[in-house]
Specification:
single chain, disordered N terminus, 4 helices
Length: about 650
């Protein structure tokens, strides 16, 4: 019989072979491989006769090992599951954050529309009152004149009538003398008998067109595309030729593999070597679920092409890419290092101490000089086109907002290129005209995007996280972070400073267009001192203004000119540990240093390699001044003794 299992038509007692394992008795225990049951020797002489067997201990050991393998295999999935769970939680958190941000944007946008409508309503009512009042004044004046003339005629005619009715010749003669001439004047006087105004007052309101516009106002943009199903195709996936455009087609699909038929997905693409991104490229959204990545590589070799959808690799990514010098693999006529389009790493050049350019103008001179400069005009790494904002962080990094190249480039304090990120476009996560950059204490990189009219937040690795200020900002130029972790945004177009929580919630705002203490004319950049006071460069007012964290005006300094402490359109600003304020003087192409109260201290010496239209400015973690020399398409680092 089978161990532990009675035969349905047997009345014998169950075999208790499992209770008589080695060490508990002398019963020999086997395992029937055919029936997959443990049996005793008696059973093997019965119904299990002729079946293949093995030692129960061997089978138990084998199954224990098999079970352990399965446990190990199952447990090996746990890190993947945990990673997926964390990824989903991050996406859910980001989704919730985006929903809250968009909800606030909707409320804000419609609130602004209400204000605009109310303002227009007030203007129309005022216009109606003024227009009708002017017409009424003309008509009422004409009416009063005619009524006066009517009364005068009636009065004089009445007097004359009394004289005519009497027979007193003396009275008639006297009346003729007193009234006759007046009656002649009244009879011949020109009177405004025709209306001098009209009664037309009409209202023209194109309500139907406005109603249609409002009906279609705003769209919630999203897709159902997922990276695991999204595919790429085209010759540009595997090979391309140096200097010649290559193309990759990206087809987005939903979780079931169905084609997505709308655009606006957030896609990023990079052609990389192990030391960073090297290729120029542009992603074109065809608005039908497909996207075209066009890129050009200026160096031959083996590269990696990474295509990501919502920061996740699509199917097959990263792809291995072979770049050849020509279609027939013929050797190039010039070396890559010397070819006109080649990419080169430009290392910092240390400069010796320079002579003071204007010794008579310097007061309390600070001993400093040019340490190195990085960059030329171009689109490759270490090259710039209209760089503007500059930031530095405690990890020893320098960040440059490369405005016309639609990216942010990151360097070490010694000038070594580390990475860059940014995809040109007008969708969340893309950059159209980055002008300001700052680093949050949590490591996030904050970018003011002037043309997209919002501020984007990226992780320290350059992955898009969120945006803020959409619907409120008109032209954000500079950004900074205060000691509360709030994001300070200088809106150049609106002439207003906005303060946001990183979540996007507006804390406060201050400023308007004008030349008053709390007004601006094209403000550019911001810095925050140890007292959490906000320092703003007021470009067209040629001054620097200081406010407390609530936006209350504290002080200002500077005027238009070329003298000590004067400005010709100030731009970048930074504060050292002693509270001294360092200002980039754009029009005068110099850098000035002031104490915390705005008193002029000195210049940063730039005579050895003159600046040309400096923009953003920051202090590096090792105490040097870094400035975006926009006109020379480079950034420069100067020694600065605090």
């Amino acid at each position: 019989m089978e161990a532990q299992q009675a035969s349905p038509d047997s009345s014998s007692e169950e075999c208790t072979v499992l209770e008589a394992l080695p060490g508990k008795g002398t019963v020999s225990v086997l395992y029937c491989l055919s029936c997959e049951n443990s049996v005793c020797e008696d059973c093997m002489n019965g119904e299990h006769a002729g079946h293949p067997t093995d030692s129960l201990e061997n089978i138990v050991d084998q199954q224990l090992a098999a079970l352990q393998d399965r446990v190990d295999s199952a447990q090996n999935r746990l890190p993947q599951i945990r990673e997926a769970v964390q990824s989903l939680r991050d996406i859910l958190q980001q989704l919730s954050s985006q929903r809250s941000s968009i909800e606030e944007d909707i409320h804000s946008s419609f609130s602004e529309l209400h204000k605009t409508l109310d303002t227009r309503k007030s203007v129309l009512l005022m216009e109606l009152e003024v227009t009708s009042g002017l017409k009424q004044k003309v008509l009422q004046g004409q009416l009063d004149t005619l009524l006066q003339e009517e009364a005068a005629i009636n009065y004089n005619c009445s007097q004359t009538g009394e004289a005519l009715d009497g027979e007193n010749k003396a009275v008639i003669l006297q009346t003729h003398k007193d009234v006759g001439e007046r009656l002649s004047d009244l009879a011949s006087q020109g009177l405004p008998l025709q209306p001098e105004e009209n009664d037309q007052l009409d209202l023209m309101m194109e309500i139907e067109g406005l109603r249609k516009s409002i009906h279609n106002l705003g769209t919630i943009v999203t897709t159902n595309a997922v990276a695991s199903q999204t595919e790429a195709s085209g010759e540009g996936l595997e090979q391309c030729v140096v200097g010649q455009p290559a193309t990759v087609i990206i087809t987005t699909r939903d979780k079931s593999g169905g084609l997505c038929k709308t655009g606006n997905a957030i896609i990023s693409a990079e052609v990389c070597t192990p030391d960073g991104s090297v290729a120029d490229g542009e992603i074109v959204d065809h608005k039908n679920g497909t996207y075209e990545f066009q890129y050009t590589v200026k160096k031959e070799g083996n590269f990696s092409l990474a295509l990501r959808l919502y920061d996740q690799h699509i199917k097959g990514s990263p792809f291995q890419l072979k770049v050849t010098s020509s279609p027939d693999d013929s050797p190039p006529t010039t070396t890559a290092a010397n070819s006109p389009g080649s990419r080169s790493r430009q290392k910092g050049v240390r400069r010796g101490g320079s002579l003071l350019g204007t010794p008579k103008k310097r007061v309390n001179p600070i001993e400093d000089d040019l340490i190195f400069r990085i960059g030329t005009k171009g689109r490759n790494k270490g090259e710039f086109t209209n760089l503007q904002g500059v930031a530095a962080c405690s990890e020893g990094k320098i960040l440059i907002a490369d405005s016309n190249n639609q990216c942010v480039q990151i360097f070490s304090n010694t000038g070594e290129f580390q990475s860059r990120f940014g995809v040109r476009g007008r969708l969340p996560g893309q950059l159209q005209r980055p002008t300001g950059v700052a680093v949050h204490p949590n490591g996030d990189i904050i970018i003011a995007d002037y043309d997209n009219k919002w501020v984007s937040i990226f992780s320290s690795e350059g992955k898009y996280k969120a945006k803020l200020g959409s619907g409120r900002l008109m032209g954000p130029k500079g950004v900074s972070v205060d000691q509360n972790g709030h994001v300070i945004v200088v809106d150049n177009k609106a002439c207003t400073v906005f303060i946001f929580q990183p979540s996007g919630k507006l804390v406060t705002k201050f400023g308007s267009r004008g030349n008053g203490d709390r007004q601006f004319a094209g403000p550019h950049f911001a810095a925050v001192n140890n007292n959490n006071e906000i320092i703003i460069t007021d470009f067209h007012n040629h001054s620097v203004k200081v406010f407390n964290a609530d936006g209350e005006f504290l002080l200002k300094f500077g005027s238009n000119g070329e003298g000590n402490g004067q400005f010709n359109a100030p731009t970048g600003v930074a504060v050292d540990v002693n509270g001294n304020i360092i200002v980039a003087d754009w029009g005068n192409s110099r850098i000035q240093v002031f104490d915390g109260s705005g008193s002029f201290l000195s210049y940063i010496n730039t005579a050895a390699d003159p600046l040309y239209g400096p923009q953003g400015l920051a202090l590096t973690s090792d105490g040097h001044v870094v400035v975006a020399d926009s006109g020379n398409h480079c950034f420069k680092v100067y020694r600065y003794l605090q």
